[in-house]
Design goal:
2 helices; 7 strands; alpha+beta; globular; 16% helix; Immunoglobulin-like; single chain
Length: 147
């Protein structure tokens, strides 16, 4: 009986140790993480992929050298009104998020799209340091997310 307990204890110990070595979950809201690296538009709520389509994203520089972007988002449903929020995170050349001080991050903007409607979301960087961006999209009421 003693020989059975030792292998069992060893198995439990190995499983416990191996479970502790897994890396932490990479959140969908981490705009610098591998899940969103290089993505121009990220849906925070996965169910949005079913009802919201990104028709186009364009960007350029203003005469002052500031990064500007415009995204066309369309409600692809025939019978559902969508209430969403959008936010742009601007990134420096090294991939670092700009405007990280408390109160300096971009506010979430609210949009309501009727069935088949397209909205044009525009944003401008605040400094010429911005080299790229990620537009984040989520449901306005988180309980509607369907996650």
């Amino acid at each position: 009986m003693k020989n059975l307990i030792n292998p069992l204890a060893l198995t439990v110990a190995l499983l416990t140790v191996s479970a502790c070595t897994n890396p932490p979950y990479d959140s969908k809201t981490n705009v610098t993480g591998s899940a969103t690296a290089g993505a121009q538009v990220v849906f925070i709520d996965k169910d949005l992929r079913r009802v919201l389509v990104v028709d186009s994203v364009s960007d350029g520089r203003s005469p002052a050298g500031l990064l500007q972007l415009q995204a066309a988002l369309r409600n692809s449903t025939n019978d559902e009104t969508l209430s969403v929020q959008l936010q742009t995170i601007f990134l420096a050349a090294d991939g670092a998020v700009l405007y990280t001080d408390v109160g300096s991050e971009a506010a979430w903007q609210n949009f309501t799209l009727t069935p088949g409607q397209t909205v044009y979301y525009k944003q401008n960087a605040l400094t010429a340091d911005a080299r790229s961006y990620t537009v984040r999209v989520r449901y306005m009421n988180r309980r509607d997310a369907g996650n």
